[in-house]
Design brief:
Layout: H1 12-24, E1 25-27, E2 34-39, H2 43-52, E3 57-61, E4 65-70, H3 73-81, H4 106-117, E5 118-125, E6 128-137, H5 140-152, E7 157-162, E8 165-170, H6 175-183, H7 191-202, E9 222-229, E10 234-239, E11 245-249, E12 260-263
Helix pairs in contact: 1-4, 6-7
Length: 264
């Protein structure tokens, strides 16, 4: 039985759960149902949450999903009290804001949100490695608040709007800070996303050094000089024979983004 445990968000477990409800949770509009549906591979997390919050029941859905649920009116009231509204991706999306909780608990809330609506990709095209870490939300204002909180912690990100959905992409140079922000001293998280972020951090960028004959002396003793002009698809080269620089079209499809290895 629910005893108003979530009326006050005062520890990291509650903050994490609230973040997960903000992303992957459903608060009934006309019903009292409150549930979180995750992939079956995340069942360990679901069982961990049910152990911490025993007022939830567990339900398997179609053999591919697992659900953490509760049908008590008081839980719905407390989730709404903490900013998690029904239909938060539709008519209530502009009412979505970072919850009014202790500043030290916000990173646990964001970790919960990231585990629901965040993602990591590690991809290869040719011999080039690309990494991406991002967070989605239908609420642009909500993502702006998340971005501001991350920036306060020196984590740089870029906000884009794609088909009316916001995408907050973490800067490559902030991956390590973002990882520490999410997971330092954390006791509850989605294992597979932690592992993916770990793999991304452990993977070094490698760009192939394809060359072209020099425009000035026709020597093939040329090397990429480190500047890629991706918008116009050109590369700067240095000729080691005549010591001159020249710019030429990139001669590979290394920026195509194909060959995805990880995503979620």
């Amino acid at each position: 039985m629910y005893k108003r445990e979530l009326q006050s968000i005062d520890n990291q477990e509650k903050a994490y759960l609230l973040g997960l409800f903000y992303s992957d949770g459903n608060v009934g509009l006309n019903q009292v149902q409150c549930r979180i549906e995750l992939k079956l591979e995340d069942k360990d997390l679901v069982f961990q949450l049910q152990k911490i919050f025993p007022f939830f029941f567990i339900h398997y859905d179609r053999g591919t999903k697992i659900e953490l649920g509760n049908y008590e009116k008081s839980l719905k009231e407390d989730l709404i009290l903490n900013g998690c509204f029904p239909r938060k991706s539709f008519e209530n999306k502009e009412n979505l804001h970072l919850p009014d909780i202790d500043k030290n608990l916000l990173r646990h809330f964001i970790r919960g949100y990231f585990d629901g609506d965040g993602g990591c990709t590690l991809s290869h095209s040719g011999r080039k490695t690309q990494k991406r870490v991002y967070i989605y939300s239908a609420s642009i204002n909500f993502l702006k608040e998340v971005q501001k909180e991350l920036q306060y912690n020196n984590i740089i990100s870029k906000l884009q709007i794609i088909n009316n959905v916001g995408k907050l992409t973490i800067s490559t140079y902030s991956y390590a800070l973002f990882f520490d922000y999410l997971y330092k001293d954390s006791i509850i998280f989605m294992e597979r996303k932690l592992n993916k972020l770990n793999q991304i951090l452990a993977t070094e960028f490698f760009t192939p050094k394809k060359t072209l004959p020099c425009k000035f002396c026709n020597s093939t003793n040329t090397v990429c000089d480190g500047y890629n002009y991706y918008k116009i698809k050109k590369q700067r080269y240095l000729c080691k024979t005549c010591k001159k620089h020249f710019t030429a079209p990139i001669i590979s499809n290394d920026n195509s983004g194909e060959g995805e290895l990880l995503e979620d």
